[in-house]
Amino acid sequence: MELKVKSTIGLVGEVSVPGDKSISHRAVILGSLAKGTTQVTGFLRSEDCLNTARAFMRLGVSISWPFPDVLEIHGNGLDGLREPGDVIDVGNSGTGIRLITGVLAGQSFYSVITGDESIRRRPMGRVVEPLKEMGAMIFGREGGDKAPLSIIGGELWPISYQSPVASAQVKSAILLAGLFAEGETSVTEPTLSRNHTELMLKGFGADVRSERTTATVVGRPQLNAQSVQVPGDISSAAYWMVAGLIIPNSELTITNVGINPTRTGIIDALRAMGANLVLENIREEAGESAADIVVRTSSLHGTEIKGELIPRLIDEVPILAVAAAVAEGDTVITDAKELRVKETDRIATVAVELAKFGVSIDELPDGMVIYGRSELTGTECQSHGDHRIAMSCAVAGMAASGETVVHDTECIRTSYPGFEATLASFA
Ligand code: S3P
After folding, report:
1. Cβ(338) to ligand 1 under 6 A?
2. Ligand 1 pocket, 235 CB below 6 A?
3. How far is the CA of 47 from the centre of ligand 1 (A)?
4. Within 10 A of 35 (CB to CB), how many other CB atoms are there?
5. Where in the chain is the domain with CATH 3.65.10.10?
6. How far is the CA of 294 from the centre of ligand 1 (A)?
7. What's the rounded Cα separation, in Å, for the pair 383 and 413?
8. Which CATH code is given to the segment(s) 21-229?
9. Which of 233, 246, 274, 393 is the residue whose CA sits 20 to 30 A from 208?
10. Tens digit of pLDDT for each residue in 178-219?
11. CATH superfamily placement of domain 2-19+232-425
12. What residues pair up with 288 in beta bridges, in sequence order?
């Protein structure tokens, strides 16, 4: 599939974005390990999250859809999963494979988990090693670093793990395995990553503590089914935030967006660039807050993005690079070498694709320098199979002169079904 985008002005009105991807995955996982029926409202029906639901169905959990955006998970408790009859396939989802592997490490049966070509290239050693330390047997290609992974878990013992990376997927895999270990399992990370797992575990009744960058869970809890309300995904909202800021004559409200502080680095970065961005109607539900975000066309300037801010905006770097391209002056992004092991090497793919719009950009080993201010020219770009590259190119196309064609856009449905329709509504 391809997406044709024309130069656009005046984005006015309201848009909503689909449910948060991270929270949707976790709702399926914890709902499957809880006793009773968990109802998830605002569930993200994207390929990534559907694959997580399919995985737990394969593990014997009954999951139903009473309404299009409501998911019901009929959990059988912590020990209610059964050996799958076939390979579990997470598709494109890093969150899916790493978090489910954490759960499988606690099961005494045999399972095999894999994903698409991108997933089979991505590092799994970061979860496999600590899960093996806890007592699981896990095998994979390249010494256990690459999927497919085959797993025989069972009795685990708790660990205190010092993670070399700030990764919510690593932290969550270990905390989920910790549910099956007698005693306290803790993970300390170099800087704080998103904390949806900790918040939701608390909501389901687990004993979880968070102190600075350490999260601790007490094993063998009784998890009880919950009603989960999923807010809109700030990573999806980011496309319209940037579009509203860089496209002339815009005033756009993005409704019901999750603003968990471990995710709002994009708001901080855009404000540091001079964005006129206001949060309205702030509210809280089960530890997760949401707000409406109002953006107005702003003259942006370059900034420096590094350190603790990076995990709080890691998925937004491609669209932030589009904002930086049209900002006055240079933007320097460092401490972000994790971008090299995302769905694609996002330092390389952002640099290659933005250069096609006429942006002057240099790769760094752990980030990039974007030289503003660029006049974007419509072009032909490739998603490289990466949803965030596809959507960032589409927004760049709206701000560019002439027409832009983005090729290979099927991947958008892994995180943002309906993106194309919202885009078309602005044409
Ligand atoms: C996610 C964690 C992040 C993020 C990904 C979703 C999660 O990955 O990039 O899109 O839901 O836990 P890492 O944990 O690899 O940083």
Report:
1. yes
2. no
3. 16
4. 17
5. 2-19+232-425, 21-229
6. 26
7. 13
8. 3.65.10.10
9. 233
10. 999 999 999 999 999 999 999 999 999 999 999 999 999 999
11. Enolpyruvate transferase domain (3.65.10.10)
12. 285
